[in-house]
């Protein structure tokens, strides 16, 4: 796996590089959060960090692997690379969006390694979760960016919004998709 040019690396490049090295060493992760929206929006949105949920964990090995590719852990769950603007964070599962913990991520095979990432539908639900629960209007914009670029399961998103007590979030999304902004 070719190392990215760290000073200008995108979320997609950092995800593939870090995820590939982790997978190659027996640690499976799922990329979640804003970085997924950054990847699916082709960089129109930039998150500045990667949130990995650990599917597998090997005690002590994570820090060793991250160090081998230039990332150090100055505090807690965060790993930073001295030349990269994007930092990496690890969380323990299960992966969930609101009350839904039955998430089936997309699988991307990169140079022989399987990497896991939210599907476009789950990315939209994840961004809407922040819109619903934290009133983060920018997350509605991120959901719309993804929805405009990828087919998604509208019924699943609509039903999920209703189950979260926020049917208006789906309506807001659909209005945003239809608008030019």
Largest pleated sheet: 7 strands, mixed
Give the H and E element order: HEHEHEEEEEHHHH
Distance between the termini: 37 Å
Number of domains: 2
Strand content: 15-25%
* pLDDT averaged residue by residue: 95
What is the total tally of β strands? 7
Tell me what you see in this structure.
The chain has 181 residues and is of the alpha/beta class. The protein folds into two domains: 6-118, Beta Polymerase, domain 2 (2-Layer Sandwich), CATH 3.30.460.40; 121-178. It has seven helices and seven strands. It has helices at 11-24, 34-40, 61-68, 120-134, 137-149, 154-163, 167-178, and strands spanning 29-32, 49-54, 72-75, 78-80, 87-92, 106-110, 113-117. Strands 3-4-5-2-1-7-6 form a seven-stranded mixed sheet. A hairpin with a 2-residue loop joins strand 6 and strand 7 (113-117). Helix 2 (34-40) packs across helix 4 (120-134) and helix 4 (120-134) runs parallel beside helix 6. It is globular, with a radius of gyration of 16 Å. The N and C termini lie far apart (37 Å). The mean pLDDT is 95.
Jot down its keywords.
single chain, 181 residues, alpha/beta, Beta Polymerase, domain 2, 2 domains, 7-stranded mixed beta sheet, 7 helices
